[in-house]
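Q: Fold this one first, please.
A: Sequence and structure below.
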Amino acid sequence: MSGGSSAAMGIDGAVDIAYRHEIESADDPEGRRQELIDRFEDRTDAVRAAARVGIDGVVQPEDTRDRIRRAFDRADADRDRDWPPKKRAINPI
């Protein structure tokens, strides 16, 4: 599984804010805080988040260099010679 995560803020900070009262009132505040962090960490990994929100794909870190190289190779390909030349680089709105 990937080492990345997808969250608006770090899990530690979010737990500290959202569960402050619960943590403070626990018999073992640091233990309870760690339990909450552990509970939410597996919910924010990048692959799991991508599957739930419709992201087209997740590139594993070890595949990144090859994916970028292939994208650049495709970008360098000559345009089809049968197409007429463009009058403007970007169509006017």
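Q: Good. Now the second chain.
A: Here it is, same layout.
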Amino acid sequence: MIQTTEIHESNYSLLGKHCKIQGDLTLRGTTHIFSEIKGSIKHSDDSTLILEHCSNVEGSITGTDVILIGTFNGTIHASGKVIIQPTAKVTGEINCQNLVVQPGAFLEITGTASCENMSSLS
């Protein structure tokens, strides 16, 4: 059983699927987004930002590691890795150190990634 003090000391964010947000967000800790967002997302620490299967995000993302499972249209600047899952639909620009694209993902992107760190999982 999770203790109340454990919840208060945890570092995470969760935006549910019935949220519609327009504007600029600054988030910390592992973050799961199920929402519709128009605006910028600044993920301000070394944890992971996850756009879940029902998310629909239009705008910009700045952070370390990003996992795309839902729909994204815009620009991503990641100092670490971007992982694009099979269910993702991604259009825009991605700039990152490591780019992983899993089979089945829809991509229409431009941008840069270190060539030695770019991969497609089979």
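Q: Anything worth noting on the second one?
A: The CA atoms of residues 64 and 79 lie 5 Å apart.
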